[in-house]
Structures are given as C-alpha cells and as structure tokens.
Amino acid sequence: MSGKRIGLKEVRALEPGETIWDAAVPSFGARRQKGRVIAYVLKFRTAEGRQRWHTIGHHGAPWTPDLAREEAKRLLGDVAKGGDPAATKSAKRNAATVADLCEQYFADAAAGRLLTRRKASKKASTLATDKGRIDRHIVPLMGRLSVAAVTREDVDAFMHAVADGKTAGKTKTAKKHGLAHVRGGKGTASRTVGLLGAIFSYAVRRRMRVDNPVHGIVRFADGKRERRLSDDEYTVLGGALKLGEDASVWPPALAAIRFLSLTGWRSGEAMGLRWAEIDLARRTAMLADTKTGKSIRPLSCAACDVLRGLSRTGALVFPASRGDGPMAGFPKFWARVAKLGTVPADVTPHVLRHSFASLASDLGYSEPTIAALIGHKGRTITSRYVHSADAVLLAAADAVANRTAELMGEVQRTAIVLELHRAIS
After folding, report:
1. How far apart are CA 273 and CA 168, in angstroms?
2. How far apart are alpha carbons 219 and 159 in whole angstroms?
3. Torsion angle of the four alpha carbons 19, 25, 27, 29, in this order, in degrees rounded to the nearest 10
4. Residues 6+ apart with CB under 8 A from 150
5. CA 365 → CA 98, 245, 371, 393, 396, distances in Å?
6. Which residue in 4, 81, 298, 419 could disulfide with 397, CB within 3.0 to 4.6 Å?
7. Cα–Cα distance between 297 and 265 in angstroms, integer?
C-alpha cells in the first residue's frame, strides 16, 4: 500500500504481513510481520547502488509515526552524503557488549515489551530479581565481552564461576541503607544462566547475533529440598506464635504467619492480599494477579477466623507497621518469631506451603485438589464465570486447616459447609 501519510490510524489497521509507504517520504514505511509487532522502516540505495532496508524502531514508546518520519528524513540526508545507516547499525550491534545488551533487555522488559510464557509482562518482583542477577553476576563477569563474540565455553565458565562464589560479596541495593549478601552457589548459577539464555534469545531477535550460546549448556540440578514440618515442629511453631503475642510482635505479621500455615499460600500472595479480593460469606478469595495468573482460592473456617480478627484500617489485609504499602519487613518478623520459639533455621514461610500440601496428601486428597487449594501452576480456578469455591474444595480446605491447627495446639474448628448457589454470568 502507498499514497497515504502514515498516522496512528494507518498503523493500527495494518494486517499481518502488510507494509504501507508514506506519501510525504516515499522511502519511509511501516510493516507488520506475523505477530503484533509493527516496525518503522526505511528503504534506500547506497552510493554503490545497493538496496538496503533499515529498521528505525518498533511502534510504541518512543517511536510514533511522526517521530519515525523525522528520523527517516535525517537518515536519508546521511545517505545523500554517502552514508549507510544499515551498515552503521550492524557495526554497532557487532560492537555491543553484554552490558549494553543487558541494559537494552531490561529497558524493554521494564516497559512491558517482553512477554512471559503466559503472554503477560514481567511482574515487578521478577524484574527486581532479574536486575539483581544482571548487576551482581552477569555484568561483573561478562559485561565487557562483545555480544557477537560470546561462546558456549564463555557461558560454561561463567556458570562455574558463579557456582564457585566468584561474585560473592556485599552490594548496596536501591533501598536506603539496603545491603545484599551475594553468595553465589550452584542454584544461583543455574537460575542466572537461565536468565542469560533469555537475554541472548532477545539478542537473536534483535539480530545482534545469529545463535544463542546458552543453548546446550548443562546446568546444575535445581537442588530444591522438599522440606516439611514434622508434628513436633508444628507444635513448636504454635508455641512461637504465642510467644510472639507476648513479645508484642506486630499483630498483622503474626496473623500472616498463622494464615500461611492454614492456607499454604505463597507469602507474596498474602502480603499483597486486599480486602476487596475476599468474600468471607462465600469463604472465597479471588486473586486477580498471582504467579500463575488469576486464581480463586477456598478459605477454611480457621483462615476466615484469622481474617475476621484483623482490623480493616486500609486496603491491605496484612498492612505494614509503617506506611500504607505492603509489609516489606515480613521476613524480619518471621525471623523474630522463629527465634522466640526456637523454630529450626531451615524452616521458612515457603516450608509452610509445602507442609500444607503434604498434610493434604496425608489426608488422602488428590493432586488436582491440593493444587486448587494452594494455587499451583496449571491447577488454579480461572473461569471468568466462577465467583466462589465449591463445597468440595471448602471441605478439603477445612480438613487440612483443622489438622494444621490441631498440630499447632490450637482449638480445632468444626467445618460448616454451606450450599453455594452457582453464579450466573
């Protein structure tokens, strides 16, 4: 297509595989390939008569039709003087370092232009983790290498260097007086190489190199331990919570620990939980955005009792002791409670999640039922027409929570399962 001045209307109307050319600057165009990405392009001939295609940039911040058109005019001026924008861009790509690549990757990820497997932008927590791995491991060890020159041997050497603790140390974080203790190790090495693979896949898409040097690298086993609480440790945890009350530990933090024990939720889900997401009458929590997407969770009577015991002073169910934001200090509160009750050092909030799932298995519940209770990947309730948990899941939630409370030395609550009406779309 040609003969029209390219504007937002024309760009948005582009079909897959279609290219349009600008009436004001005929060499300037916009094209959409098979996906949703639309690129602004310039077609020109060099002083030697060779035809070149040059990609100015992808539609979206900062590139608009008008801005891309002005850039096309500037580039055509360079061509008239004997320049070759395509060759210049290729040379810059070949000269780019891994540090430059990481900066570009993170900028696009932070702007929401890189999608995960769930076709969604990366979460803020994931971006923070990526930034830490880039700044503390990738850039210090590989930052000066040319993107085009990195080999599989370089990546393998990088992985073993991180595993051996070559990047270990203390670094400042973005928080005031924040300090990160970087330890390295095999688990960190494997996860960082995974991120490095994504970064080099990005480089391939940007045509900064033709292959991904991370492909074929054999990473260390994840090494995750399936730690669960024993019956005696549940008793210790229950005693620690009582000692926390006596020591005036922040009440919402104690409630959060008890809630995690009774539900098997991820700690991040609890810290971000809002009152608007809870329906105590239906004993259901509707989480709009979790690690696995939208998730509807059944709430046991015991978990609802914890929630009813909290004051609604703000939007968050478990508020911070200072300010209106999430409880960023929860790890410190957990550490204090654990120390008061001599809870084993290797017991973390995530261990509560695995312990809940293990108790459910002990009680004879199937894997799909357990997955629905704790919002496991691929097993969450995601139907747009479902607004409450069913009676079967509520009964299961009650059974596991009651067993947990019993082991912790708390009064066992008799489950009351109500007949729920189906929501009509």
Report:
1. 34
2. 8
3. -20
4. 98, 142, 200, 209, 213
5. 49, 33, 10, 10, 8
6. 298
7. 9
Among residues 121, 100, 292, 293, the alpha carbon closest in space to that of 203 is found at 100
- Name the 3-class secondary structure at 308: helix
CA–CA separation, 354 vs 267, rounded Å? 12
| All domains in the chain, ordered by first residue | 8-93 (3.30.160), 98-205 (1.10.150), 231-407 (1.10.443.10)
- Spell out the per-residue pLDDT of the chain, length 425, in tens: 556 899 999 999 999 999 999 999 999 999 998 888 999 999 999 888 889 899 999 998 889 999 999 999 999 999 999 988 888 777 776 789 999 999 999 999 999 888 887 777 888 888 999 999 999 999 999 999 999 999 999 999 999 999 999 998 877 666 666 666 787 899 999 999 999 999 999 999 988 888 999 999 999 886 566 789 999 999 999 999 999 999 999 999 999 999 999 999 999 999 999 999 999 999 999 987 777 667 889 999 999 999 999 999 899 999 999 888 899 899 999 999 999 999 999 999 999 999 999 999 999 999 989 998 998 765 444 444 445 568 889 999 999 999 999 999 986 554 444 443 443 33
Q: Which helix (H) or strand (E) holds 28?
A: strand 28-32
Amino acid at position 236, single letter = V
| Residue among 1, 36, 8 nearest 22 (CA) | 1
Burial of 24 (0-12, 13-18, 19+ CB in 10 A): exposed
Q: Which two tokens stand for residue 39?
A: 């690129």
Q: Are 286 and 387 in contact (CB under 8 A)?
A: yes
Give the phi and the psi of residue 293 in degrees, each rounded to 5: 95, -155
**CB contact set of 315 (below 8 Å; sequence gap of 6+):** 274, 275, 276, 324
For residues 138 and 103, give the distance between their C-alpha atoms in angstroms, rounded to a whole number: 11
Contact 400, 383 (CB under 8 A): no
Pairing of strands 38-45, 51-58: antiparallel
Label residue 40 left, alpha or beta by phi (over 0 means left) and psi (-120 to 50 means alpha): beta
pTM given for the model:
0.63
Residue in 207, 210, 212, 209 with CA at minimum distance from that of residue 39: 207
